[in-house]
Amino acid sequence: MTSGHIARGVAAGAATTIALGALAFLGAGTAGAAPGSITWDDGSSHFTRTVSNTTPDAGETITVTTKFERTSWVDEFIYNVKDRHPSCLTYVPGSAKMIGENEYPVLDPEVVVDEGNGTGFVRASWGITDWVVQNRPGFHRSPTFSVRYKVGNDCARGTALNTGMDYGGSLGSGNYGTKGPAVTVSANTVSTTTVNPVTGATVGKATTLTAKVDPAAAGGTVTFKDGGATIGTAQVGADGTAALQWTPNAAGERTITADYSGNGTVNASSGYASVTVAPGDGGGGNGSLDTGSLGSLLGGFGS
């Protein structure tokens, strides 16, 4: 029964995926979460898998559910469910549960981060009569397995990452490890870094260097450089500003660079500004010798 069960599921699921792809295309550009669902039939079993947000940012948490239904009067008991996910998704401890008339947490699921192929799973199991799927007069039960994941910074960006599930029950088993819906982690936010104009820079005197990072709430750090020499590093504040004191040691034209580190889902960036540094007090040159002193010196030679 198992092999035929799986073959029918693949065909039905493929048609549903195409329909969902068209809907996703039509909905492109919609702000916020983009939930996605896929349904398929395998014999008299009907499955619905839903991802709360199929285009999450790194660091966000998503919920994945699988609903079990029957299209015949024959009952099926669910023995175990294995939710499969990309290894860059991290299981949220305590989130696995089976939902029926109430919610029933899975106290100690089996959690495998990576099977060595870039995918992991969360597996829950129950007693042989704990969870029944029914669809007959007076008896209708459609349990739903639910699990939550945190999206990792190591997830590939802009690439469809498959999810799926396997299960075992009283009528056989089904393997749908790549059935979907797929999760596509959003690309990182592009940042810009601008160095504020610097005026009044003078050798030997402290000058404040200020850089502005956009988006403002990005966090991270900015490293300031004078040419190729590092001046120091400053934290980016809540307003997107990083500031650092700089005491120039040479006069002339200088290039100040601000390198933003990036932070989580925000890319790194750099900005620069040209600064004219004036000589300091007592900077040398013939100006230190006044004309009166020079006249006295020459008069001495002539006497």
TrEMBL record:
Identification of the protein by name: Ig-like domain (Group 3)
Organism: Rhodococcus maanshanensis
Gene Ontology biological-process annotations: carbohydrate metabolic process
Signal peptide: 1-33
One Pfam family here: Big_3_5
UniProt keyword terms in alphabetical order: Signal
Domain Bacterial Ig-like: 199-278
